[in-house]
Amino acid sequence: MENNESILTELGENYEYVRTIVSNEIELVKINASETTAKVLGFVALAVLILLGSLLVLVGLLITLAIYLSSLLNSAVLGVLITTLILAIAVFLIIIFRRKLFFEPIAYAMFNRYESKRKK
C-alpha cells in the first residue's frame, strides 16, 4: 500500500515538473515572439521615417531644379516640364530595373538572415 502511495506521489511530482517546464517553454515562446515583433515594428518605423525624410529632400530638390531651369530658360513651363521629364525617366528606369534594384537584394538579404539563424 505504501509503495502505491509513493508511486502516486512521484507521478504527481513528475506531472507538476512537466507542467512547469511546458508552462516555462510557452512563456519563452511568447517572450521571443514579443521581442521579434518589437524589432520588426522598430525597423518598419525607422524605414518609414527614412523614406519620408528622403521624399521631402527629393521634393525640395525637384522644386529647386524646376526653379533653376525656369530662370535659366526664362520659362516656368519649360523648367517644370524638363524636371517632370527627368522624374518620369527616373521612374521608368526604376520600373524596368525593379528586379535588380529591389526584389533580388531583398530576397538575398532575407535568405542570408534565414541561413545565419539556421546555423546558430
Q: What would you say this structure looks like, in words?
A:
The chain is mainly α and 120 residues long. The protein has one domain (2-119). The chain has helices at 2-73, 76-96, 98-119. The longest helix is centred in the N-terminal third of the chain and has 72 residues, at 2-73. The two termini are 51 Å apart. The relative contact order is 0.04.
How would you concisely characterize the structure shown here?
The chain contains three helices and no strands. It is an all-alpha fold and 120 residues long.
Shape: rod-shaped
What would you report as the Rg, rounded to the nearest angstrom? 30 Å
The tally of structural domains comes to 1
Instruction: Classify the beta-strand content into a percent band.
Output: under 5%
- Unreliable residue stretches: none
In whole angstroms, how far apart are the ends? 51 Å
How many helices in DSSP terms?
3
Helix content: over 70%
User: Could you state the order of secondary-structure elements as H and E?
Assistant: HHH
Structure classification: mainly alpha
Strands, count: 0
- How is the biggest beta sheet arranged? none
Kindly state the mean pLDDT as a whole number? 85
